[in-house]
Amino acid sequence: MTKLKDRNDELQTKIDSKKKELASLTGTIKQVQAKPITLPGGNFTVGKDLPEGRYKISTTASSMNYFVNDGEVNIILGTESGFAEPTYTLDLYKGDKIEQGSSVTYTKI
Question: Any coiled-coil ranges, and where (predicted)?
Answer without folding.
Answer: 1-35
